[in-house]
Give the backbone structure.
Amino acid sequence: MNTKVILASASPRRRELLHQVGLEPEIIPSQIEEIITCEEPEQIVKELSRQKAERVADKLSWMTETAHGDDKSQIVVLGADTVVAVNGKILGKPATKEEAVQMIALLQGRAHQVYTGVTMIFGAKGERLTFAERTDVHVCSMSQEQMERYVMTGEPMDKAGAYGIQGCFAAFILGIEGDYNNVVGLPVGRVCRELMARGWEVWNSQ
């Protein structure tokens, strides 16, 4: 089966990760008003990913049918949400440079967790799958000057936890436990395994 992925996110990093494994997603941002009814980071990302995927799937009348009436083509809506947590406290995107420095100060010299929730809605059968992946990230000790200089690069301002592991902040990463791509924004390996387990192609997608 050929695979058509609808990504319910405008994140360029998630799009790049899917492209890396041969999937070229159609981008339809969910634009939801996030509603959180739980407190645990893992449950929050699952809940938000589900809201994003369902919002986009509800817009698409053909989600309950095979694309173009052809069994050889299948559609999946993919919603994802990522949070950074320190001792269970969630760090969102910094609103100011000062807040970004404060977040980096919480992360430096210790380990923290990155959770990404994913919801996949398979069009033909209406199957819905929601899961979350966790990665532990260890950051080395940083001086005040190093934290401020990093924030001045502008890299932290659109990222949860005020850092991008794939950017300049890589200089301060001691190591990780878990999926690296999960920290970037999508556990793309798990996504691919779920697709392939259902007979969907990855590299030969159109």
